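User: Hi! I'm working on a homework problem where we have to compare a predicted structure to a textbook description. Could you give me the structure for the chain below?
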Amino acid sequence: MARKTQSLQLVQDATMERIAVSAVSKVGVLVPPWAVLGLEAAGGAVSHAMWGAPPAVTWAAAGCTLGSTLLTALTWMATHRRRMLGRVHSTATTASATTWFTVATITGVTADATAGALFFGGATLALSWNIRTVIRAQGDGDGTGDALGSLFDRAKEQAGLKGARVRAVEVTDHKVKGQMQLPPGEKTADDAVKATARIESGMQLPPGSVIVARDEDRADRAHVTVSDPRAIRRPIMWPGPSRPGGSVDEPLRIGIYQDGDEVEYRFVGHHLQIMGMTGSGKSIGGAWNIVGEIITRADAAVFSIDVSKDDQTMGPLREGLHRFETGKAGAVDLIRAMHAAIPERTKWLAARGYQAWEPGCGLTYWYLHIEEVPKLFNELAGEDEERLAEILKEIRSAGGSVILSLQRADYTQIPTLIRSQMAKMCFGLSDPDDVKYGVSARQRKADVEPHEWEDHYPGMAYLDGKSVRTTHYAMPLRTFSWGAGSAEANAAMAAHAAAYPAAAKDVDPFTADLSRVQPAQATASAPASAPRAAVVLEDEREAFAAEFAEMLGDAAEQVIAVQHASPQMLQRKLRVTREDSLRLLEALERKGIVGAADDDGEGRPVLVAADAAAETVARLRDNGDPVTAALRTEDPDPAVIAGAGDPIQEPTDAEAEGLVTENQDRDPMTPAAARGLVHDWLRHRQQAGQPSFTASDAELTAVRNRTGNGRAWTYKVLKDLTDRGVLRADKSGNSTTYTIADLSPLDRDDLGQAA
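Assistant: Happy to help. Predicted structure tokens:
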């Protein structure tokens, strides 16, 4: 409790003090009945002194009796909306008080019977009112008399909620929680949500004090929470891990809500988008607190990518991460390896009867964290971007979640398909138009305003995900601070990561294979084919001819099934570019599967009957189209041109000799050995200080000749190495210069092949 008080030092202003004092006072609310009793006695004494002697006493008695009757009847009528107990109690009190006043006027206050009635009867009535007041303050369900209800009653008509009632149901040091009852058939909870600002104005509270949320069980009810919005405008120091050594299936404690409750976020089975402007705290407040909690859990592993800021953001966490990539080459390698391993993990779970990941199932839960994700999308080739999208769609079933951090999640920065699958955590924004990209649909309906913070309150955010309560999805929170300055925060995080190192965790073989740390032990039993699955798949996909053969088979299957062929149809069905769709149709025409293009240049007739589809598709998948494989290279000599009618010139003897390789009569090397030869050549070039070259480089040509492969193979290898970030391609006109950028993925490849 002391830690919580220290972490969240609420400062209430006069208005907030009025709510708290009225709601929890132990003395002030008891005084009014006794004050009335004293005034009653004083009034009786004055009345007797003035009119207690004959003949005035006769008229005074008649007047008091008439007044007593009228006041009692008025009380009964005025309390018709109250429950019967309240109505009877109020009416009986009025009748008793006015009757005693009449008697005291005649006999005087000091008469034995009159004084006794005042002492015993008056005290009994005062105590009865005290009892009712105390019970109402504790929330007996009467719905009237509590401070929150009184404040709301003064504001509801201006807020457009006439007929609504609010009663307090919980009072703590930091908040007052209530339940709002709306007039059935006239108002709904959504009406109350939209009227929140007017409610605050009518209650004379600071903006942001009132949070109204729908009651999931009743459309005519809403939850109301009143708290001080200024309580979280100062940094709140990180209190330490919440459940070290526990399961990641248990909630993560990542901050404090405005009402003083801890943010308990169960982050399993869904993805999270973290968005905020520069300086809003989305990285240090969002990523640090979430990942900082995850690395303390025994059954979780974090793989992080940041190609934008290198070690600046996630560097202090490095020791707690199972893998951290800051370059394109490493990022691509991680994405491809994770993409390849996901099907193996789902098979492993299915074989043991699991529909999804569960604590204790034997697999380590994966978190893929990508900082400044738009920069990564700009770096990725189209195929790797598709792999990342597939990871988001498939990793949940395999036991994993993705965390994406960015400044503005519009379609120019992130695919809308990906954004639509994310839970939302939104920090301060600079533009109100950005809000729709960073918050959930129900947060938008609640009119949350993160743009009001901008970068003035780093760490303040809204959070909405599967585990967030209905009373808190529209309530601001503050993530924990790790230090007063950057140096202090970095030191604190580095120490925390060192206390929970990734290398100390027991992980499954899938995680061990993907990691860049030496795990203590592999605990789960995975199929023998699981380790190095990524390397095997990479071997299968490297050759463009094999890849195109698969694509060609898919295209043939589609056009034969519908008996129609066009570029638009292939683009839509196969999700390929127009260039690839035209290339596929040209290959299908060469194979006699489709005819020439129609007059419009688009549609083509299909020449193969539907019943011959299986045999045709199988043949294409086996043989592919060597012509396309040969043509999908850059022109080796753009200066050599020829027209369609030009005669074919036979090569001279010297040219013919130049076409013969020293390995022409030998079988080509295995793909792994051929790649290894290229890798060694690249290392030699790097050591020699010659990192740049072209595809027609004499040394590279000699290497290719030794492998027994053709020129097309060279371009396939160079393209793959460029996609992975090993090489950088700079195109000038019709020629391309390749420059060595990062050789570390080659070391991992060679190590994997050796294993």
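For your comparison, note the following. The chain has 29 helices and 20 strands. The first helix runs from residue 2 to 7. Good luck with the assignment!
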